[in-house]
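Record type: monomer structure entry
Structure origin: computed from sequence
Chain ID: A
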Amino acid sequence: MNVNNKYLQIGTCSLALLIAGTPAATAASLQSADVVVIVDESTSMFGEHQWLGTMIPQLDTALQSKGLIDNRFGLVGFGNYHHSNYSHNLGRYLPIGGANFATSAEFTTATNNLLVSGWFEDGYSAIDFALNNYSFREDVAVNFILVTDEDRDNGNSSLNFTNILAGLQRGTADSKDDIFLNAVVNANFVNDAIGVNSEANAYIADGSGGYRTTQLPSLSGIVTSAFSNTEADYIDLALASGGAGWNLNQLRVGGSTATSFTSAFIDIKVKEMQQQQQHKRVPEPVSILGLLGVGVLGTTSLNKQ
């Protein structure tokens, strides 16, 4: 039987042209980031609240310069003590532009509503609150920033390192879906570093508002001192998630050291989210004609009687 009729030729040729015109690889439909800042609302945190209000718009600008646009920012406060009913605030979202997520400019306005009257701070409960009360977009980089100057006050004994890390990994074996955590905490690192990431890169202020990067031998012994159980509670968690630990004390020094801190923090956050977004790219499409064993010029292979 002759299957090489004119209709098959036309159809095959048209399909070949369509496939030939398809890009070799297709990026994820939306190259963006969903960022949730989880911040201690105790009395000592006023300076950090102000820093977040200025830093997040800078981070957004840096992300956009690298092609990550339409970024969304959320704000969770924790640690506020409610005198009216003697209850602890283990986590609350602050509406930004009337919603959980909004622009970086609206985020800055929302930081003015953070409180500084708390004293019981459970960062695990606050992270858990964010995991359960925010909906993240498909195919975008998701990142959490925890800012606190104390270790964890345990307000929910059902939460621990293991299940919080599992929550950040979003219950999947595919690391591309992981939420990176960066912990800005009361801890000091080797070489007086501003911070250290999960690959043992240490960031060190250069005295002029910039920073340099040093590769440490390993993550072992990177913390020289920390407030109580901060290392085990937060730094180890951030590193295990793929994020970084940061020295809040360096930020509080002010001057060029604080400038170095902010510069390094923004740069590393951008690199993290670029990495996350790259991992979310759609695989190269498979040619339908390839599956059929027919190439663009392969119509003659059907010329059989």
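Annotation 1: Confidence is low (pLDDT under 50) at residues 1-29, 282-305.
Annotation 2: The radius of gyration is 25 Å.
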